[in-house]
Amino acid sequence: MAGDDFGEEQLNEAIESLCQSKAEEFRLIGYEHVSGLDIWECVSQKYEKEGYPPLHQMVNDVLSLKVTQFMNYMTISAYRGSRFE
After folding, report:
1. Among candidates 44, 45, 23, 21, which has minimal Cα distance to 35?
2. Is the pLDDT of residue 2 over 50?
3. Taking a C-beta distance cutoff of 8 angstroms, is the pair 46, 52 a contact?
4. How many C-beta neighbours within 10 Å does residue 42 have?
5. What CA–CA distance (Å, rounded) separates 79 from 85?
6. 15: closest CA among 50, 77, 75, 65?
7. Residues 9-31, mean pLDDT to the nearest whole number
8. Is the pLDDT of residue 4 over 70?
9. First vs last C-alpha separation in the chain
10. Of 67, 8, 82, 3, nearest to 32 (Cα)?
11. How many CB atoms lie within 10 A of CB 23?
12. How far are the Cα atoms of 12, 36, 40, 54, 65 from residue 16, in angstroms, in the given order?
């Protein structure tokens, strides 16, 4: 694409920064142990079947993530044994 100035590394850094920002937002409202990686794992789990969407959709998914959605994801992950071992 002619207007695409981002390489894969820059995109990864931008998404990582966005997830860190969302984690900080959650920490400010009392969820102290949330990391950017936790946010990304929650958001990206729905991409496993369909593949990664366009960048604007990933950004929207991170920015619109609600604490209740995140906590549901963490609870389900704990039941499945994939976390908190």
Report:
1. 23
2. no
3. no
4. 22
5. 11
6. 65
7. 95
8. no
9. 44
10. 67
11. 21
12. 6, 7, 8, 16, 15
